[in-house]
Amino acid sequence: MNGEADTTRWDASTPVTVDIRLSVNRDEHPITVDTRETLLDTLRERLDLTGAKKGCDHGQCGACTVLVDGRRVKSCLTLTVTLDDREITTVEGLADGDTPHPLQTAFVEHDAFQCGYCTPGQLCSAAGMLAEAAAGWPSVVTRDVSAAPRLDDDEIRERMSGNLCRCGAYVNIVAAIGEVAR
């Protein structure tokens, strides 16, 4: 540099992109993403999967919940670039072809939604929660952590507490999940 100052500046407005392969609902998507792009934005704006909703955009409401390798994640807080070769399931991928997921059927039967805005996140979160309980993971309210979790209403409410419903359909949501769990 011959004693001269380096005047090269990094410009934050210039995107840094990465080529990755997303597996979403059993479909492969080779895609180039900005390293700052959230999974929620990728799903909604680039893959036209609009089930996951942008509620608070701060990870507080759960409307954007999807499953990554079977685990619940808030897609508004997850950078797409971190999900190369991981299996992503959105509400659109819960059904088995034309056969709805048992949770989807139970939500309809129990009228577990009103406006429906939170429903995709509630369904993905419930599917992940049922898998966690089946694997023996306790929650804060699990009475005996050495025993298999018993999904009573208190347990379901605790495990679903990261998903908010503005309409207050909680009683029916818990009943629908309870039916599938039992």
UniProtKB/TrEMBL annotation:
Cited Pfam families: Fer2 (PF00111), Fer2_2 (PF01799)
SUPFAM superfamilies noted in UniProt: 2Fe-2S ferredoxin-like, CO dehydrogenase ISP C-domain like
Domain 2Fe-2S ferredoxin-type: 18-94
Keywords of the record: 2Fe-2S, Iron, Iron-sulfur, Metal-binding, Oxidoreductase
Keyword Transport annotated: no
InterPro entries: 2Fe-2S-bd, 2Fe-2S-bd_dom_sf, 2Fe-2S_ferredoxin-like_sf, 2Fe-2S_ferredoxin-type, 2Fe2S_fd_BS, Aldehyde_Oxdr_Iron-Sulfur, Beta-grasp_dom_sf
Domain of life: Bacteria
PROSITE patterns linked: 2FE2S_FER_1, 2FE2S_FER_2
GO molecular function, a single term: 2 iron, 2 sulfur cluster binding
Pathway involvement of the protein, from the record: Alkaloid degradation; nicotine degradation
The protein, known as: 2Fe-2S iron-sulfur cluster binding domain-containing protein
Organism, scientific name: Streptosporangium roseum (strain ATCC 12428 / DSM 43021 / JCM 3005 / KCTC 9067 / NCIMB 10171 / NRRL 2505 / NI 9100)
Upper taxonomic lineage: Bacteria, Bacillati, Actinomycetota, Actinomycetes, Streptosporangiales
